[in-house]
Write a structure and sequence with these properties.
Transferase(Phosphotransferase), domain 1, globular, Phosphorylase Kinase, domain 1, alpha+beta, 10 helices, six-stranded antiparallel β-sheet
Length: 337
């Protein structure tokens, strides 16, 4: 994603009943601030500010938008607003809580509940720098991602996709419970017809269909990213980008490095999610949750995951004869690690 080149709003600014405390994060499409409401309750405010389309200098509040970029900017503004409105309808402990959204300074702001904690990415990096291995325990991965998938199921039930799942967008509260942040669905709406806003994906975490101009996006796209995020917990870095894998998949040797720290079942779950063919990934978030909750049993001839895959493969073969083969994938990780 592109870097954010725009100046943030100044600390102490009063805006629609909120007071900006400081900038806490930024990306190519937005800046996030810690703020407080009129009662002093801390909130996070996300400001729509695509750096490829607008420019805001230090000391200014309203961004400068060129006439040629204005139509694209307005479409993005509408998508951002609609995304906020859709998220405001979701009330789930594993999805960020949107409290309000408003217009000001020729842009849109999304107000979210603020909670103390850190991103999964920060957690991984801190653990990676320590000598203990594994970086993150299998128990942590299974327990935490089952909760992440609870939130993702709610998102999909509301006919939304996340489309930017990665450790940086999974927030861990102080009690260890996760929360999904920073949805990319609005940006993907723009991607289809407005090539100026490329790229919209995060290499390593993005499914191959996200690289295609008219890729068929769906829950399977988020499932790929979940697999990539689990892999990052295990390896301490993202898997090989999917566009590179389609040319030369070099994942297997990196996968083998995980054998001593993680069960064959967990590695197989990640393989399943990271299949380049969407039809051969877990058929639903629920199916993925089910295998994450299964107990590890290395004495079985087939792992529990393999049995589950065979079961779903038979169903899929019945629905689409000739389109589905063995669900096993031979490679997972790559040179990007």
């Amino acid at each position: 994603m592109a870097a954010q080149n725009n100046a943030p709003l100044p600390d102490g600014l009063e805006l629609a009943g909120y007071r900006i405390v400081k900038k806490i994060a930024s990306g190519g499409f937005s800046i996030v601030y810690l703020a407080s409401d009129e009662e002093g309750v801390p909130v996070a405010i996300k400001e729509y500010l695509p750096s490829s389309l607008v420019l805001r200098q230090v000391g200014e509040l309203t961004p400068a938008i060129s006439p040629e970029n204005l139509p694209i900017y307005r479409i993005g503004l509408k998508c951002f607003f609609e995304e906020g409105r859709a998220l405001a309808r979701i009330s789930h402990p594993n999805v960020v809580s949107v409290l309000n959204f408003f217009r000001a300074n020729d842009t849109v702001y999304m107000v979210m509940a603020y909670e103390s904690g850190c991103s999964l990415q920060e957690h991984i990096l801190r653990r990676r720098d320590k000598p203990e291995r594994p970086i993150v325990t299998e128990r942590f991965i299974r327990k935490m991602f089952v909760q992440v998938l609870n939130g993702l199921r709610e998102v999909h039930t509301n006919k939304l996709l996340h489309l930017d799942l990665k450790p940086a967008n999974i927030y861990l509260r102080l009690d260890g419970s996760p929360m999904l942040l920073d949805f990319g669905a609005a940006r993907q709406t723009l991607r289809t017809d407005l090539p100026k806003l490329y790229p919209m994906y995060t290499p390593g975490f993005a499914a191959p269909e996200l690289y295609e101009k008219h890729g068929n996006l769906g829950p399977w796209t988020d499932i790929y990213s979940i697999g990539a995020a689990m892999f990052a917990c295990m390896a301490g870095a993202p898997p090989q980008p999917s566009d590179q894998r389609k040319v030369s998949d070099k994942m297997e040797r990196h996968y083998r490095k995980l054998d001593e720290s993680y069960s064959a079942e967990l590695i197989e779950i990640v393989r399943w999610c990271l299949n380049l063919d969407p039809l051969q990934r877990p058929p639903s978030v629920f199916a993925l949750q089910k295998v994450l909750l299964l107990k590890v049993d290395d004495k079985k001839e087939l792992t529990a995951v393999e049995k589950m895959k065979v079961f779903f493969n038979k169903i899929l073969d019945g629905l689409h004869p000739g389109k589905h083969g063995d669900l096993d994938s031979k490679t997972i990780s790559g040179d990007s690690i």
